[in-house]
Design a protein that fits this description.
Length: 138
C-alpha cells in the first residue's frame, strides 16, 4: 500500500495524484512574467488615468459616455457599479482596516501551580546536592 494514498470523505482510499507539487519546489517557478508591469503601463499610461476613467464611467457614467470611451455599448449592472466604486475607493484611500474584536480568557492557575511545584523541586534538589552527606547513625 502506498504511503501517499489518502482517505476521501467517504472513507475510501484514492491514489496519490501523479502530478502533485514536489516538496521544496515552487508551483510557480517562473513567477510573474518579466516586463508585464511595463507592458500594462505602456498600454494604459504611466499614471493609470485610463483605469481611473474606465472605472469612473462604470460607476457613474451614462450609456453614451461608456460607448464612446469603450468603443462599444457596455451594459452595467449594479454589482459592476459597486465593484468600480470599491476599486476607486481602495486606490484613492486604501483598503479599509478590518477591526477584529476578540476576547481571550486563559486559566493559568493549573499551569502556574505545576511551575511552582517544579521550581520548588529543583530548589530542594539543589539544596540537597549542596549539603555534605554524613553517615547516619544506626
Amino acid at each position: 500500500m502506498s504511503e501517499n494514498n489518502t482517505v476521501s470523505g467517504n472513507g475510501q482510499k484514492r491514489p496519490a495524484p501523479r502530478n502533485g507539487f514536489k516538496k521544496g519546489r515552487s508551483g510557480n517557478p517562473g513567477g510573474r512574467p518579466k516586463g508585464l508591469a511595463e507592458t500594462v503601463r505602456t498600454l494604459v499610461g504611466q499614471d493609470g488615468r485610463k483605469l481611473v476613467d474606465a472605472n469612473m464611467l462604470l460607476a457613474w457614467g451614462s450609456a453614451e459616455d461608456r460607448r464612446v470611451f469603450f468603443g462599444e455599448s457596455v451594459k452595467v449592472q449594479p454589482k459592476d457599479r459597486q465593484a468600480a466604486i470599491e476599486w476607486l475607493g481602495e486606490r484613492g484611500w486604501g483598503k479599509p482596516i478590518q477591526e477584529v474584536n476578540s476576547t481571550l480568557t486563559l486559566d493559568l492557575g493549573p499551569a502556574l501551580d505545576r511551575i511552582t511545584r517544579f521550581l520548588a523541586d529543583v530548589s530542594a534538589a539543589r539544596r540537597a546536592a549542596a549539603l555534605p552527606r554524613f553517615p547516619q547513625p544506626d
